[in-house]
Every structure is written in C-alpha cells, then in structure tokens.
C-alpha cells in the first residue's frame, strides 16, 4: 500500500472515494448472497437436478444488473469531462479569454472520450433490448433501429470533429508563427 499523503483530499475526491467504497461493498454483499444461495441450494437439493440457475435466476439477474453501473461509470466520466471542457470553453470564448490549454483540450480530448461515450451508450442500448422486447416486441426492434444509427452517426460526427480540430489547431499553430 502506498504511503499516505499529508494533504487533505478534495471534497470531490472524498465523495468519489465514498461512492466507490459503497458501490464495491454493496456489490460484494450481493454477490456473496448469490454464492450463499448457490451453496444452500446445492446442500438442500443437490446440483444434479439442474435447477440451481432456475432457482437463482431472478436474484442473480438483479445482482448482475448492478454491473451495468460499470458501463454507466465510464459513460458518466466521458460525458462529464467532455461537458466540463465544452461549457467552460464557451465561457472563455464569450469573454475572449480562451487559454491555449483549453483550446487544446476542447479539440483533442474527444479523440478518446467520444469513442468511450459511444461504446458505453451502445452497450447500454444493446443490453436494454432483451428486457424491452419482453415488454413489447416493437420496443425491442426500435432499440435495434436506434443501435443501427450509431455506426453512421459516429462516423459522421467523428469526422466532422476531426475537421473542426484540424481547422482550429492549424489556426492556433498559425498564431504561434506570427
């Protein structure tokens, strides 16, 4: 374990740490519940009858649904970092005081954050299709249609962003030469 720092962590860092502690403690407890139920079922009924999953399916699905938060975490990080950069960039731009670092962040972080965000979104839509189809088959097909738009949509928006990046970064490089 690394040595403890003498500096006080920020409120945001403390909140993140507390959230992660809670999330992982709850996950461990719920998965222990799955394990305990498997052991109790096996002890009472045996495993030969093939009914372990049948008996535990509902509870296990509930617990596994919590794993969707892993995707949501990456999605929320990608979205929030992107939006903080974007909106603060707009504030700087409207006051004619955009720091060079903010221009660089605005036109470069999307290279990593946009694919993470799109991958997270598509995974969540994909995982929503089976339960949506159980509610109404048309709803499931609608989600498949939404999912199909991500491929051309990603390409179109990403290439547009690359062009914007090229234009802005070249203009910024031109200012440095003057």
From TrEMBL:
Pfam families: PTPLA (PF04387). It comes from the Eukaryota. It is found in: Endoplasmic reticulum membrane; Membrane. Pathway: Lipid metabolism; fatty acid biosynthesis. InterPro entries: Tyr_Pase-like_PTPLA. Its EC number is 4.2.1.134. The keyword Thylakoid does not apply. The keyword Plastid does not apply. GO terms for cellular component: endoplasmic reticulum membrane. GO terms for biological process: fatty acid elongation; sphingolipid biosynthetic process; very long-chain fatty acid biosynthetic process. GO terms for molecular function: very-long-chain (3R)-3-hydroxyacyl-CoA dehydratase activity. Keywords: Endoplasmic reticulum, Fatty acid biosynthesis, Fatty acid metabolism, Lipid biosynthesis, Lipid metabolism, Lyase, Membrane, Transmembrane, Transmembrane helix. It is a multi-pass membrane protein. It is an enzyme of class 4 (lyase). It catalyses: a very-long-chain (3R)-3-hydroxyacyl-CoA = a very-long-chain (2E)-enoyl-CoA + H2O. The chain crosses the membrane at residues 20-40, 110-129, 141-162. Catalyzes the third of the four reactions of the long-chain fatty acids elongation cycle. This endoplasmic reticulum-bound enzymatic process, allows the addition of two carbons to the chain of long- and very long-chain fatty acids/VLCFAs per cycle. This enzyme catalyzes the dehydration of the 3-hydroxyacyl-CoA intermediate into trans-2,3-enoyl-CoA, within each cycle of fatty acid elongation. Thereby, it participates to the production of VLCFAs of different chain lengths that are involved in multiple biological processes as precursors of membrane lipids and lipid mediators. Belongs to the very long-chain fatty acids dehydratase HACD family. This is Very-long-chain (3R)-3-hydroxyacyl-CoA dehydratase. It comes from Didymosphaeria variabile.
């Amino acid at each position: 374990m690394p040595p403890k720092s003498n500096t006080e962590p920020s409120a945001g860092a403390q909140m993140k740490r507390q959230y992660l502690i809670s999330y992982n403690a709850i996950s461990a407890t719920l998965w222990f519940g799955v394990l305990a139920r498997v052991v109790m079922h096996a002890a009472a009924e045996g495993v030969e009858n093939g009914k372990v999953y049948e008996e535990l399916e509902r509870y296990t699905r509930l617990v596994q649904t919590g794993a969707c938060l892993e995707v949501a975490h990456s999605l929320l990080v990608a979205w929030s970092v992107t939006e903080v950069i974007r909106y603060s960039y707009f504030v700087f731009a409207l006051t004619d005081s955009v720091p060079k670092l903010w221009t660089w962040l605005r036109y470069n972080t999307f290279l990593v954050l946009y694919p993470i965000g799109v991958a997270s979104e598509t995974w969540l839509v994909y995982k929503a299709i089976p339960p949506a189809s159980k509610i109404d088959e048309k709803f499931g097909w609608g989600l498949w249609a939404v999912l199909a738009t991500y491929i051309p949509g990603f390409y179109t928006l990403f290439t547009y962003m690359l062009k914007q990046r090229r234009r802005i970064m070249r203009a910024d490089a031109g200012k440095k030469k003057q």
